[in-house]
Structure formats: C-alpha cells, structure tokens
Amino acid sequence: MTTVGIIGAGNIGGTLAQGLVDRGYDVVIANSRGPETLSELVAKLGSHARAATAQEAAEAAEWAIVTVPLKALEDVPVDALAGKIVVDTNNYYWERDGRIAELEEGRTTTSEMVQRHLAQSKVVKGFNHIAAGTILTDGTPAGTPGRRALVASSNDPDAVAFMTGLYDQFGFETVDVSPLSESWRAERDRPAYVIPQNAEELKANLARAER
C-alpha cells in the first residue's frame, strides 16, 4: 500500500488526506503545530492515517503533498524528499505571505520557488485552482461529457504523468501547462482560478491569462 506524506493540514491537506484514504492509500500528515494537534483529524480519517512531524511525514512518504503557506516554505524538509514526486498546491497570497518581489515582477512562480527549495525532488503543481470543498464532490468517471479539468505543471514529464493518473483517480481530466515557469497561468486572479471548467474551457482560460 502506498504511503503519502502530507505536509500541511489545512483545508486542502485535510481534504486530500480523506480522498487518499478513501482510495486505499496510507497517509502520514503533519502541520506546523505538532502531531498532537491532529488527533481529531486522524481519528476521522481512520486507521490508514497517522499524525507526525513534517520530517517524519517526508521520510515516510513514497510521494508527498506540500500544502503550506508560501511563507512557511523554508520549513519543509529537503533531504527526506529528495528523489520523490512532490505535489505543490500553493498559491501566492501577499496578504498572508508578505510581498515577494520576484513573484510580483513575474520573475518566478510559486512552484518554481518550491522546486528551488526542493532541488532534488520532482515538483508538480496540482490541486491549486480548485476549492477544497469540491475536490471530493466534482470528480466524475473518465469519459463523462464535460468532465472537470485541472492543471498539472512540472519540469519533469514523469511527474506530469503521475499527476495525470492521480487526477483521474479523483475524477478529473488533466491539462498540462508545463514547465513550472508557466504554472502562474492557473493561479489566483487568473481566468482559470477556482471555477469549474472542462479541458477545452481550461485551455482557453489559461491562454487568456495575463501577468
């Protein structure tokens, strides 16, 4: 059984933990406040989930999800995630993260910042432009007309292929907007952000995005 490390236990982290447990994964989840603060969540998730420190979650992971505020990126373990696929769900919220000039000037993207921090990992952008409350409700079987689509973006083709398979398990089509330097197209305040859309609509919204 595959073990997934989830670093970040907010709305997205908790929702993905539930979805993964429901799909037969083991989950090791961490937050910034310590494993003891996650007892209620892991009790709800059941026997295939346990709380841990971020370091322990990274070490246990066969692949990982990093879903922390951008301002907390430096706290994400590096060595324990080396060689692993890491799904990055982040978006830049200056109100929360503080002003970051290289993002505001279009010189990098949030996922490129994650990849720079996790230099030996295969970072792939995923689940960043869907509201947490619809991750477990909007998915439909493959072949469903108008099936909702989500973006994957990575500098590594294997990571995109992995994300495509994961999205399919959750009931979503994939639109590849690689490399990571293009991932800004699906972030906050752009046409593709949060709204339900099929693959063709998503491609059109990505193309309309302006920096």
From TrEMBL:
Q: Which domain of life is it from?
A: Bacteria
Instruction: Pinpoint the Pyrroline-5-carboxylate reductase catalytic N-terminal domain residues.
Output: 3-92
Q: Where are the transmembrane segments?
A: none
**Keyword check for DNA damage:** no
Q: Name one GO molecular function term.
A: oxidoreductase activity
Asked whether the UniProt record includes Oxidoreductase among its keywords, one would answer yes
Which UniProt keywords are given for this protein, alphabetically ordered?
A: Oxidoreductase
Q: What is this protein called?
A: Pyrroline-5-carboxylate reductase catalytic N-terminal domain-containing protein
